[in-house]
Amino acid sequence: MAMVAGCVPGDESIMRPKAHGTSETPVQLNLRWNCDNDQANQICNHNRHFAEFSGYWKTTPLYAEVTSSDEPITYFDSNTGKPLFIAPRGRSMAEFVAESSKHGWPSFRDEEVVWENVRCLPGGETVSVDGTHLGDNIPDASGSRYCIDLLCISGNPTGDEETLVTRYSKVKEEKNDTEDSNGVLTIMARIRGIMAGIVICSIVGLVVVVTHNKYSDKKPNNDGPNFLAVENELS
Questions:
Q1: What's the pLDDT tens digit per position in 119-132?
Q2: Is the peptide bond preceding residue 220 cis, with omega within 30 degrees of 0?
């Protein structure tokens, strides 16, 4: 099977037998969203073809979390605690929830994958670089769609992994601050332009008034042509 654009390919050696099935480390004891450790251990470390039941993610506290906030959520490897997905990215939370609800499992797109820690195997299986089975890549008209078991991405961050997410959040905040600053500068430039226009119009109006008063007070010169009379006739 040819790799789909966007996937970072891996090979079967990633999933070779290790100390805990296909992983060197066991599933964390205190998984997020009250995910079951025994089920997670089976699906993530001793399985290549099966998945949690469809809609499982909506039975956990995660569903309330994603339907009450628009903030992106980072999903960590249930074995190692490394970040695997950050969603939503490039779409709204409502769109992420709608797609995941439609297919039955959390569904991620290319830009929501932390490719440093995720690989796609030739058959479409999606795994972590440490051997955690995550789910499958099931492409559609919009591109790659990673249909993922929540049990395998409900870990807690540890050490450098937490720092990585913090760094991403900081970059995002700096981008937003820059966009806000540019918006303020644009508004200020427009205000200065409007004020300059008002000042110029005021000066021109003042000159017209002063000039008009100057000539209105001047009496016609009987010894020469009456320019005011000529002006009135032409108007």
A1: 999 999 999 999 99
A2: no
pTM given for the model: 0.69
What is the predicted pLDDT for the residue at 219? 40
- Range name among 15-19, 42-46, 133-137, 159-163 with the lowest pLDDT average: 159-163
CB neighbour list of residue 12: distance below 8 Å, 6 or more residues apart: 121
Task: Write down the pLDDT at residue 215.
Answer: 44
Q: Specify the residue for token string 């006739």.
A: 233
Give the residue from 136, 65, 72 showing the smallest Cα distance to 104: 136
Six token digits for residue 76: 């960590």
Q: DSSP secondary structure string, the chain?
A: -PPPTT--B--GGGGS-BTBBTBSSPPPSS-GGG--HHHHHHHHHS-SS--PPTTGGGGSHHHHHHTS--S-EEEE-TTT--EEEEE-SSS-HHHHHHHHHHHSS-EE-GGGB-TTSEEE-TTSEEEETTS-EEEEE--BTTB--EEE-GGGSBB---THHHHHHHHHHHHHHHHHHHHHHHHHHHHHHHHHHHHHHHHHHHHHHHHHHHHHHHHHSSPP-TTS--HHHHHHHH-
Nearby residues of 120 by Cβ (< 8 Å), 6 or more positions away? 3, 4, 7, 8, 9, 10, 126, 127, 137
β-strand partners of 113: 85
In angstroms, the CA 115 to CA 132 distance is 14
For the record, the structure tokens of 81 come out as 């605690």
